[in-house]
Amino acid sequence: MFVDKNFLKRTLKQRNPGSHKGENGKVLVVGGSKLYFGSPALVGLSALRAGADLVYLLVPESIAATVASYSPDLIVYGYEGDYLNESAMYLFYQIQEKTDAMVIGNGITKNSSVLKVAAKMIKEYKKPCVVDADAIVDGGYKVKDAVYTPHVKEFTLLADLSVPQQMSAAEKVVKTAAENIGSVVLLKNPVDIISDGNRTAFNKTGNAGMTVGGTGDTLAGILGTLLAQGCPAFEAAGCAAHINGAAGDLAYKKFGNSLLASDLISEIPNVLKKQ
Length: 275
Fold this sequence. Notes:
Blueprint: H1 5-11, E1 26-30, H2 38-49, E2 54-60, H3 61-68, E3 75-79, H4 89-96, E4 101-104, H5 112-124, E5 129-131, E6 146-148, H6 152-159, H7 167-181, E7 184-187, E8 192-195, E9 200-203, H8 215-228, H9 233-255, H10 261-273
């Protein structure tokens, strides 16, 4: 099946006009490092533009002020150090209780000690979780409610499988990976492939301008919000891919190959208003 407007209409919930702050999704973003401080901000801002009520960013103290400066709408917590480490767990335990979904991995680096802490967080977070970027590891984490969002190279690491050029063959590979890992896999490609090991969907929105850095972060943020709002993982992944690509298409009309991930974020509301 292809993700289209009907797919989105079946999945996306209408907001209750009587709802209160926090009832439309609270997202925890664990990301960033001394080297990469823009990634968690892009994730957080995308989550907000996708409709989350509250977004909490857990980042190293050395970059916390910089990350917070991106927007007063972000709630930023800093832990000691330049990279994800055990000292982050104290804040993690506090914040996880008041959030509905987590996005982890963006900009944390592949350092083995960092990944050890990331794995601990993923296994202890008992709610829907987007595993992206540096947190994607060989074989995944074998936890319920995780959604993996690899590009082709990350997919090879995750599943120990290469992605064939032929679409039907690629579909089988992604479906096999999702079945083996026991989680939804969203392969980011010119045509995105989403599978839960049983069902498979394709998304065609997006363009070549989206090879710019940060568009994977925006996807992760959108997906985090949809999960936080209660969308099932497979449907949320399909909708997030479509929304991210459609926002990228609107940005491409304005900026062409000069588009930035931040341009895409500005277009997310325009995509959602059409649904």
